[in-house]
């Protein structure tokens, strides 16, 4: 077998390995060996495979940025050669957008670096003739995740108009999330309802996720019957992915805590199964999803403890999932699960430079246990500011000029003095 054949065979075998740390480590080793050979084309192919594998594990934050930085440096050194052999500009920009979404989900990546990457991405989109709408969408997601909610309306309006100018279909998911970020249920539901009703050709791929995403906005909007219908359809099967399991667990916990008479034995058992599955998967999630999973499971166990405190085999944070965990009563695991969620919240608050997640947690508890619908995850005065910003952006000829993409240190309305009471008991 020739050296070239051996290389391509090894790369193929590693690419088809199951996702996980072992695959990332093996590809990193191949990248080191390939770099020593001095073949830029082969090294480029291995680095792309490593980037995809590391981002796919949700545990590869120490590999994602260095690997992508190496690909960018390779592209900058000789754009024509890189474009002709594995790194065309559109691939680089698409990967950049995904890497940026990835960085916001890791509190270990400093905010200053995230901001620098966002600025560099915008410059490259302009220089390489990239998709302006995708650039706005990427910045929209970053601002929402970082808690800079005042920047979301103008960015979403700019994205919508850029897609219209380019003749592109609407980005239903980005519009839905923009409404959720800013606690404007009518906006998020306007994007999701047509997709759920199968009225949008080509958008069917979002339907399962939207059944789950719509639950909280529907409750915020007082549409509980519609929320119940969407929950019933989504709960009858597994969640569309792990985040879907989180949303379904939250809704089932809400029903169990507030209307236990509506939860039959099969409903309770599905919730118990979902909690077990999330706790088994949580150690392999990135910090953002892991924190949400532990919080959702903590709330679920709190609701179960009040009604059905029968022991379950529940895996606690930090435990090895290679062996079966011991039987534990839901009441015994609430405190450690919510404590772990709090630690992750604190890490994100320190990185983001605001208390948005602390306020969101109070709203999440209110969503499950009451009082109210939980829309106070964004306190009322801030919701009104955001509503006014949406209206101003839509009436502006240039929404980004009238409301700049705000960053920490600007007067961007990050006033959390009106947050609801304490975050609820951690018992």
Structural summary, described in words:
- The chain is built from 21 helices and 2 strands.
- It has 427 residues and is mainly α.
- The chain has a domain at 238-377.
- The chain has a two-stranded antiparallel ribbon with strand order 1-2.
- It is globular, with a radius of gyration of 23 Å.
- The chain starts with a helix and ends in a 25-residue tail after the last helix.
Straight-line distance between termini: 63 Å
Question: What best-fitting shape do the alpha-carbon axes yield?
Answer: globular
Secondary structure tally, helices: 21
Radius of gyration: 23 Å
Strand content: under 5%
Query: What's the β-strand tally?
Result: 2
Low-confidence sequence ranges: 405-427
The class by helix and strand makeup works out as mainly alpha
Task: Spell the H/E element sequence.
Answer: HHHHHHHHHHHHHHHHHEEHHHH
Kindly state the percentage of residues in helix.
Answer: 55-70%
Mean pLDDT: 90
What's the gist of this structure?
With 427 residues, the chain is mainly alpha-helical. The protein has helices at 3-15, 21-37, 40-57, 61-77, 79-84, 89-104, 111-128, 132-146, 152-165, 172-181, 185-196, 207-213, 215-220, 224-235, 242-258, 265-281, 287-307, 330-352, 356-369, 380-395, 399-402; strands at residues 312-313, 327-328.
């Amino acid at each position: 077998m020739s050296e070239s054949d051996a290389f391509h065979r090894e790369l193929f075998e590693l690419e088809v390995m199951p996702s996980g740390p072992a695959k990332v480590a093996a590809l990193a080793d191949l990248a080191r060996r390939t770099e020593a050979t001095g073949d830029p084309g082969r090294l480029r192919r291995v680095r792309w495979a490593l980037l995809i594998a590391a981002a796919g594990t949700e545990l590869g934050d120490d590999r994602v940025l260095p690997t992508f930085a190496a690909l960018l440096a390779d592209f900058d050194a000789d754009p024509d050669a890189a474009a002709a052999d594995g790194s065309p500009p559109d691939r680089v920009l698409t990967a950049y957008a995904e890497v940026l979404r990835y960085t916001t989900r890791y509190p270990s990546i400093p905010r200053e670096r995230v901001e620098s990457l966002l600025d560099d991405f915008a410059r490259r989109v302009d220089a390489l003739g990239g998709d302006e709408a995708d650039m706005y969408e990427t910045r929209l997601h970053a601002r929402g995740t970082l808690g800079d909610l005042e920047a979301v309306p103008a960015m979403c309006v700019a994205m919508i108009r850029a897609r219209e100018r380019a003749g592109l279909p609407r980005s239903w998911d980005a519009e839905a999330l923009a409404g959720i970020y800013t606690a404007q249920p009518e906006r998020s539901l306007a994007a999701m309802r047509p997709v759920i009703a199968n009225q949008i050709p080509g958008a069917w791929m979002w339907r399962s996720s939207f059944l789950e995403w719509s639950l909280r906005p529907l409750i915020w909007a007082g549409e509980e019957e519609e929320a119940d219908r969407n929950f019933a359809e989504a709960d009858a099967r597994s969640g569309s992915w792990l985040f879907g399991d989180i949303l379904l667990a939250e809704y089932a916990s809400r029903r169990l805590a507030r209307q236990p008479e509506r939860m039959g034995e099969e409903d309770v058992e599905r919730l118990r199964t979902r909690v077990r599955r999330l706790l088994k998967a949580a150690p392999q999630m990135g910090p953002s999803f892991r924190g949400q999973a532990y919080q959702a499971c903590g709330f679920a166990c709190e609701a179960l403890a009040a009604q059905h405190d029968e022991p379950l085999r529940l895996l606690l944070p930090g435990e090895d999932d290679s062996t079966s965990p011991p039987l534990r009563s839901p009441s015994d695991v609430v405190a450690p699960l919510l404590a772990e969620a709090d630690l992750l919240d604190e890490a994100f608050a320190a990185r983001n430079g605001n208390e948005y997640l602390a306020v969101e947690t109070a709203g999440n508890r209110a969503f499950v246990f009451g009082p109210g619908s939980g829309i106070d995850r964004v306190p009322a005065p801030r919701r009104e500011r955001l509503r006014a910003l949406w209206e101003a952006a839509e009436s502006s000829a240039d929404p980004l000029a009238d409301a700049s993409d705000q960053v920490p240190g600007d007067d961007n309305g990050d006033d959390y003095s009106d947050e609801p009471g304490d975050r609820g008991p951690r018992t």
